[in-house]
TrEMBL record:
Native source organism of the sequence: Streptomyces tibetensis
Domain WYL: 778-840
Molecular functions (GO terms): helicase activity
This protein's name: Helicase-associated domain-containing protein
InterPro entries: WYL_dom, XPB/Ssl2_N
Residue ranges of every copy of the Helicase XPB/Ssl2 N-terminal domain listed in the record: 555-677
Keywords: ATP-binding, Helicase, Hydrolase, Nucleotide-binding
Domain of life according to the entry: Bacteria
Annotated Low complexity bias: 494-512
Region (Disordered): 134-153, 494-531, 754-774
Length: 848
């Protein structure tokens, strides 16, 4: 294409956007969704919004390290810069081939996000981005470069500038501008600059070496040393303030051999495998962890079944309640906080909203319990992937130095879902069975989202990644650090071949073992939509189901009053055994212990001795031991022998000798007992306190109703009203879907057509860009004329909601106070009330 045939270079970002196709504009709006909220009226407004500080900061923070380095190099280049100049800053004199290969993609990414515009011969960094990235004394550039010669000499006297020019071996000039230009030309001329530095003292070169990679500022005294005086005289160091000097940018670039960055990083660091296991071992380990996760959540909710801890006034759990929960679950406090937050994110627990507010299970918990184990696991991990609440922050401090509590406010971090998904996606890129080195995962994430100024103490993404790795292991998404088959499915990655997914159990490979090769399946790079995630979670549940142990319908009774459950029990058996016995230990097998108190608990729940004997005989693979049968019969024989009712409270018994024994027992002095009749005692204590007091004395009383019937006491499950799971806090506006994007592009194009259509002379818009105001008679006359000529006109229109817009229409007919026209901006025929048209202007003949 000849120079004459080339389209003119865009003069602004709006013109550059106007030259883009719909696919390119769509890519911009997907990468920067904040630009579409709300939809801009035209491309000029889109360009203005793309240049706002908040939007540019957000876009820069989402660049990878090399793209950000490219933007930083453009910020220290001339404005505009050519692609060749940018390549020199990035690749240096040696033209690093990796940088040469990666730079076109980085420039294309910056162009796509409207941070850079213009052709390769006139690349322009967005002005706001340049202001953010260019070096300044207050905000040093990551490049370590200082100001240019022109910027550093801005306040210098003309005489001093001429002295520097003369000392550098340049001819004197008639003004300061040409002198500064000559000095900058010297510093950018490699041959002349090399000759100048060849005469420099060695210790002067040492000074330059210390400043060359930044920071470029140094301190000098009022009487500088000879090595500094030599540099100051020739402008190789320039004063910026009393006692402060700076290395000019041109000098630093010469010493750096043209490089803007000490180390360019065009290629992301790889994720290294720290260990390798057979995929079958990973899957079975992960399945065991998944089962433990289900059991832990069930135990947590069972512990809170009758009403959990109180809600703090500021919200959340108290430190003491979190400690109690950790002891009950037999886990460290940070892990207990994770399980509590996970149950909350899944909608299984919430506050009950009562006056004495407490945490309790929700009705959704009962529904969750009825689901198959794999589906219950799927619900937990799906909630974990999407949750913005971050349990790892519990125990830390917020901005006001207040302690962050579990279930309390201040735990939402909108970046958490993206980081979790990205961590798992990086694991999915490794061969199956490979566990990553955690530091390599963190290094990769830092490359993808570099820290501004490399502030390690503010590395939230790094901490989120570390928590994601440990939480994925707790949930069984990973096993032995490697992503499991069900974990890959959870990300939407294709499942492994059947031969790789099935096989005999094997131990991890040793140093000399040769592992079978199972190539990884790539996972989607972005989090899935809710519909896609539901499909992926269902696939993961199907893969997990065969790996979970089948619930058992039996236990092994032992002579020491214990029962051993060699695996998970079916729910009715587990529930009944949980009432009849106390859990003594957990692990691969659960040990239950029978005591007089636990048997009495079952009798209080309405069971008879015969029912307990039948239950144990039906579910034990071993004969019921005689000591256990004796224990049940002995407790049942005494159970209900005493009856406690409400007087304030009373005790009645057919055997008056037993009542005499109670009255004689000093331990009952606090109950305030006195005999009313040979078989009845009255008490000052309430019925509950009387029951507990008599049991503490070794008796087995039963409560009775006002009618004299034995009351059956069952633990009442306390449930909250229906509660929705907490909504994740979004990380900015969501990425628009295809439907919204198409509608937005159409509206932007239409508005741009209306705002840029050429007008006839005398039809110029008002100062604010709106069509000129016209009276009703002029509007009607112009419309009627346009119907006769078939020409399009430019109108201002206010709809019934009061929203003003500009439109380009071709009137078809005017009658009854309405104009029917083809609306070019909407691409359809519409009818407009004439009284809502605020102004009309004729378009130029070439407006089409």
């Amino acid at each position: 294409m000849s120079t004459e045939d080339r389209p003119p270079a865009p003069r602004s970002l709006a013109e550059a956007l106007r030259a883009r196709g719909d696919a390119s504009l769509g890519a911009l709006l997907r990468s920067r969704p904040d630009l579409i909220t709300p939809v801009p009226t035209d491309l000029t407004q889109l360009a203005t919004r793309a240049g706002t500080r908040a939007s540019v900061v957000r876009a820069l923070e989402r660049l990878d390290r090399f793209a950000l380095q490219t933007a930083e190099a453009l910020a220290v280049a001339a404005d505009p810069a050519t692609y060749g100049e940018l390549l020199g800053l990035m690749a240096g004199d040696d033209a690093d081939p990796a940088v040469v290969a990666a730079l076109p993609h980085a420039v294309g990414l910056l162009r796509e996000q409207a941070l850079v515009w213009g052709d390769d011969d006139r690349l322009r960094l967005l002005r706001t981005a340049r202001e953010l990235l260019a070096p300044s004394p207050q905000h040093p550039s990551p490049t370590g470069l200082g100001p240019t010669v022109q910027e550093a000499t801005a306040g210098m006297s003309p005489g001093r500038i001429q002295e520097i020019v003369a000392a550098a071996g340049l001819a004197s000039t008639h003004d300061s501008v040409s002198a500064v230009t000559a000095l900058a030309g010297l510093f950018t001329d490699r041959a002349r600059m090399a000759a100048l530095l060849a005469d420099a003292p060695a210790d002067s070169l040492d000074v330059l070496e210390r400043l060359v990679w930044g920071p470029p500022y140094g301190q000098v005294t009022a009487d500088p040393a000879p090595r500094l005086r030599w540099l100051l005289d020739r402008g190789l160091l320039l004063p910026t303030a009393p006692g402060t000097v700076v290395l000019p940018r041109e000098v630093a670039l010469h010493l750096r051999r043209g490089l803007a960055h000490r180390v360019a990083e065009p290629v992301p660091p790889g994720v290294e495998a720290a260990a390798a296991h057979r995929p079958q071992v990973v899957d079975s380990t992960a399945a065991g962890q998944a089962y433990t996760a289900l059991a832990t959540v069930e135990e947590l909710l069972k512990d809170w079944d009758e009403g959990g801890p109180a809600v703090l006034r500021a919200g959340g759990l108290s430190v003491r309640d979190l400690k109690r929960t950790a002891v009950a679950l037999d886990v460290p406090e940070p892990t207990a906080a994770f399980w509590v937050e996970l149950a909350y994110a899944a909608g299984l627990i919430a506050s009950d909203g009562e006056a004495d507010e407490r945490y309790a299970a929700t009705p959704a918990y009962d529904e969750w319990l009825e689901q198959p184990p794999a589906e219950r696991w799927s619900r937990l991990v799906t909630a974990w992937l999407a949750a913005t609440r971050t349990a790892g922050l519990v125990g830390g401090r917020d901005a006001k130095d207040r302690t962050l509590s579990a279930l309390g406010p201040g735990l939402d971090r909108s970046a958490a879902p993206e980081v979790r998904h990205r961590v798992l996606a990086l694991l999915a890129e490794l061969p199956e069975g490979a566990a990553p080195a955690a530091e390599s995962v963190l290094a990769r994430l830092r490359w993808e989202r570099p820290l501004r100024g490399d502030r390690r103490e503010d590395d939230l993404r790094g901490r989120l990644a570390e928590w994601a790795l440990s939480e994925a292991e707790l949930l069984g998404v990973t096993g032995r650090g490697a992503l499991s088959t069900q974990g890959r499915a959870l990300l939407g990655a294709p499942a492994a071949p059947a031969a790789a997914a099935k096989g005999p159990e094997a131990e991890p490979a040793g140093p000399g073992d040769k592992l079978p090769v199972h190539h990884h399946r790539s996972a989607p790079s972005a989090p899935l939509s809710p519909a896609e995630q539901a499909v992926a979670s269902a696939a993961a549940a199907r893969l997990l189901a065969p790996l979970l142990p089948e619930p058992l319908d039996h236990v092994l009774l032992q002579a020491d009053l214990t029962a051993v459950a060699p695996g998970p029990l079916r729910r009715p058996l587990a529930n009944m055994l949980g009432v009849l016995a106390d859990v003594e230990s957990k692990g691969g097998a659960t040990v239950y212990r029978f005591t007089a108190g636990s048997v009495r608990r079952a009798l209080d729940a309405g069971q008879a001795a015969s029912d307990l004997h039948a239950f144990l005989a039906a579910h034990s693979r071993t004969p019921v031991p005689q000591p256990l049968a004796y224990l049940i019969d002995d407790v049942a024989r005494r159970h209900g022998h005493l009856r406690v009712g409400a007087a304030s409270a009373y005790v009645r018994c057919d055997d008056d000798a037993v009542l005499s024994e109670i009255l004689a027992d000093k331990r009952g002095a606090g109950l305030g007992l006195r005999r009313l009749a040979p078989t009845v005692l009255a008490a000052q204590a309430d019925p509950v306190g009387l029951l507990e007091g008599l049991r503490a004395m070794g008796f087995a009383p039963a409560a009775e109703s006002a009618e004299g019937d034995v009351l059956i006491t069952r633990a009442l499950a306390h449930r909250t009203p229906p509660r929705a799971a907490p909504e994740p806090v979004p990380d900015g506006p969501p990425v628009p879907d295809d439907t919204l994007l198409a509608a937005a592009l159409r509206a932007i194009r239409a508005g741009d057509l209306a705002s840029t259509a050429p007008r006839k002379p005398g039809s110029a818009p008002t100062a604010d860009g709106e069509p000129p105001r016209t009276g009703a008679a002029e509007t009607l006359a112009t419309m009627q004329a346009a119907v006769l000529t078939g020409e399009a006109v430019w109108i201002g229109y206010v709809n019934a909601e009061g929203t003003a817009s500009q439109r380009v229409i071709a009137p078809i007919r005017v009658e009854g106070g309405f104009v029917t026209a083809y609306d070019h901006t909407a691409d359809e025929v519409r009818t407009y009330p004439l009284h809502r048209i605020t102004g009309v202007a004729e378009l130029a003949d070439d407006a089409g």
